[in-house]
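Bug report (template v2)

What were you trying to do?
Predict the complex of my protein with NAP.

What happened?
Run completed; filing so the output is reviewed.

Input:
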Amino acid sequence: MKGWTASDIPDQAGRTAVVTGANSGLGFVTARELARRGARVVLACRSEARGAEAAERIRAQAPGARVEVAPLDLADLTSVRAFAAEHKGDRLDLLINNAGVMALPHRRTADGFETQFGVNHLGHFALTGLLLPKLLEAGPGARVVTVSSFMHMLGTVDPRDLNMERGYRRWVAYARSKSANLLFTHELAHRLRAAGARLVAAAAHPGYAATNLMSAAPKMEGHRAKERFMEIGNRYFAQSPEQGTLPVLYAATGPDVRQDDFFGPPLQGLWRGSPVRSARAKWTLSDTAGRGLWAASERLTGVRYEALTG
Ligand SMILES: NC(=O)c1ccc[n+]([C@@H]2O[C@H](COP(=O)([O-])OP(=O)(O)OC[C@H]3O[C@@H](n4cnc5c(N)ncnc54)[C@H](OP(=O)(O)O)[C@@H]3O)[C@@H](O)[C@H]2O)c1
């Protein structure tokens, strides 16, 4: 991937992508760059107003972009089902499971799940399962890309306490949800391989990119000093969202992307530069943990992957 940039994205004309959380940060850049290369992109956003504003910005920055906004709240399985029902007739080549929340104070989703596990993992698990028939029908190059984080290294999924009922620690909850993103990719890749499917499941992380991710929790708590601290971090230490998005775009469109690949910026480049295959915690490659998380996710969401029974 040496020297790979967004201008290396191959022509996407005739392809359709769904990008979750496309109104902000990495999701916005992902949607814009795919649209710039000719894809029709569905911006799946929890706020239709923020989605519409993002669509306008994309059209201004990438003239001729084919973007549409559709409501999707990953913290509510009714919304996930409604989104999938609305799009079940559409062609679908790329699903970018990007939306996320980080280190929020303890909250529950509409379905009663701890929010970071619910939004970052379960919502995307349900969405992918419901959209799977269209992804399996797509031609060569179809991909499911799930955005994880290097912070997954801080904690593995606890199968006996998925919702952290035994004591909530917000950073541990984030790390676990990002480990769940990788375990999900691992098990999905295994099932796709077993089914002989063309669809590829891969994952990516941006290193540290300046987005709204860090300020969401301080804003929720009205903690102005913490918000300011996060802003300073973004300004002086983070790379741009454009740079941070490269591993996601590579996983979605790059050549030679294999099942269960995980891309990120190069560590030796101080987390800047063209994407490389990233290190990952060994627990995210555990078949047993992957199968266990999968079974629990099917039970909790009620979404079964009929075409990929493992
Ligand atoms: N930035 C980094 O340094 C970094 C590092 C590692 C991993 N990541 C991962 O990158 C992904 C994108 O984050 P970002 O950095 O681009 O942050 P961001 O700018 O805050 O974007 C997050 C997106 O997710 C959406 N979202 C949050 N809750 C949602 C829900 N319930 N339903 C649907 N959409 C929801 C947000 O919508 P609203 O705008 O409406 O809130 C926003 O569009 C996340 O998965 C994050 O874990 C980021």
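What did the reviewer find?
The pocket of NAP is lined by residues 20-21, 23-27, 46-47, 50, 72-75, 98-102, 119, 147, 149, 205-206, 208-209, 211-213, 216, 244 (CB under 6 Å). The first strand starts at residue 16 and ends at 20.
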